[in-house]
Write a structure and sequence with these properties.
heterodimer; A: 100 residues; mainly alpha; flat; B: 203 residues; 6 helices
Chain lengths: 100, 203
């Protein structure tokens, strides 16, 4: 078959990293880093997501076409959030004039 | 055939992309309101249960491990271990939902459900804005819990199916596909936990 069976210790290792990362998230949240709190929290979350996607969801071993779809999904999610923020983030930059 | 496995995996990922956009819409709206009302959002954190949330995150990660192992044993056709790991996954899933609903009960007792007798006496200036966060909280965790129920239903079917037919290295697609779904639900929670529970924990 196309899937190579991963050894149990790979899964357990990924699990251990995910558990450690969870408690790091919880601990860091109570330290005041100002605006960096959310950056650290999201960086840990993205790392955890990558590990789950690559190893638990077998994207590391899957076909190139599936990988392309996975990347496309996150790319479109990025467009959704990025373009929404460019709108809401810049609404106050220009004086509110008459539209017509 | 490898081609069949590839196409069912691809099909499941296409479904998961629609799920990413479904939750993504809520994450996007959350981001906009969090940027608009940072003070009100941070003020809600002391009503959340970060330790319960952290334990639940760990429970869900354990369920992802047991699901991944169930898929692994389906790949080598070990019926007994498929059964054990699927049932373990379901036990972790039920534990997660139990903790989640006891949190809902605590919020209900503290009058934190929007519109239904919502009270916010410590920060009356945030009375309306905090309700926006609690709307996001209940909708996002609620839809997540709904996905958990669907996953538990699918796994019940898998456990029964596992007794009737033999999953092996030639055919384990249903286990693989339901595993993908379960890991996706886990990923959603990985983001929900810091975004909803830990907004203003540092203050």
């Amino acid at each position: 078959m196309n899937h190579k069976v991963l050894p149990v210790r790979t899964y357990v290792l990924i699990w251990a990293i995910l558990i450690c990362a969870t408690f790091t998230t919880l601990g860091v949240a109570f330290i005041d880093l100002g605006p960096w709190n959310i950056v650290v929290a999201l960086m840990i979350a993205f790392t955890k997501m990558s590990l789950v996607v690559l190893y638990f969801m077998h994207v590391k071993q899957t076909s190139t076409l599936t990988r392309l779809f996975v990347v496309a999904g996150f790319f479109f999610l990025g467009i959704l959030i990025f373009l929404a923020m460019t709108d809401y983030g810049t609404r106050t930059w220009l004086p509110a004039g008459k539209m017509w | 055939m490898p081609q069949q496995v590839d196409s069912s995996t691809l099909g499941m990922w296409v479904f998961l992309l629609t799920e990413i956009m479904f939750f993504g819409g809520m994450f996007g709206a959350y981001t906009i309101y969090r940027v608009m009302y940072p003070g009100a959002f941070a003020s809600t954190s002391k009503y959340m249960e970060p330790v319960l949330g952290g334990i639940n995150t760990a429970v869900l990660i354990c369920s992802s491990l047991t699901m991944a192992l169930a898929v692994r044993y389906a790949q080598i056709g070990n019926r007994k271990l498929i059964r054990i790991f699927l049932i373990l996954t379901m036990i972790f899933g039920v534990a997660f939902i139990g903790v989640k609903f006891s949190e809902y009960y605590l919020h209900w007792k503290e009058h934190l459900v929007p519109w239904m007798g919502f009270q916010y006496p410590e920060h009356p200036e945030f009375f309306r804005q905090a309700q926006i966060l609690f709307c996001f909280y209940f909708f996002m965790t609620g839809f997540h819990a709904l996905h958990m129920f669907v996953g538990l239903g699918l796994m019940t079917w898998l456990v029964i199916r596992n007794e009737k037919i033999r999953f092996n290295e030639e055919y384990y697609t249903p286990v693989e596909i339901i595993g993908l779904y379960w890991h996706f639900v886990d990923i959603v929670w990985i983001f929900l936990f810091p975004l909803l529970y830990l907004i203003g924990a540092n203050k």
